Amino acid sequence: MATKARSDGSSPPRFEMTLPKTVIGLGLVSLFTDVSSEAIFPLLPAFLTTLGASNAFIGEKA
Fold first, then answer.
1. Are 55 and 46 in contact (CB under 8 A)?
2. Which domain holds residue 53?
3. Of the candidates 48, 11, 26, which has an alpha carbon nearest to the alpha carbon of residue 3?
4. Contact between residue 6 and residue 12 where contact means Cβ atoms under 8 Å apart
5. Domain contains 40
6. How many domains does the chain have?
7. Residue 27's pLDDT is what?
8. What is the largest CA-CA distance in the chain?
9. Less crowded by CB within 10 Å, the N or C end of the chain?
């Protein structure tokens, strides 16, 4: 991409692309939701057992 030189010798204005704060916030919320759901998955059978669920309900072999 070629840029034309200005007649006064100054360089063209530079535009920086930044994401809105809302997009960054939603990305962080999505990241933390994914991490927390992956972290709780191995603990779910033990939690259900403490609530009284049977091994057949959880899907574990006796």
1. no
2. 21-58
3. 11
4. yes
5. yes
6. 1
7. 97
8. 83
9. N
Query: Burial letters for 13-39: b for 16+ Cβ neighbours within 10 Å, e otherwise?
Result: eeeeeeeeeeeeeeeeeeeeeeeeeee
Residue 43, token pair as written in the block:
């603990």
Asked if residue 5 is part of any domain, the answer here is no
* Domain annotation covers residue 41: yes
Please provide the size of the chain in residues: 62
Structure tokens at 1: 């991409």
What is the pTM (predicted TM-score) of this model?
A: 0.53
Q: Residue 45, class by beta-carbon neighbours within 10 Å (0-12 exposed, 13-18 middle, 19+ buried)? A: middle
Alpha carbon 8 to its chain's center: 47
Dist. CA 17–CA 15, nearest whole Å: 6
| Any domain includes 27 | yes
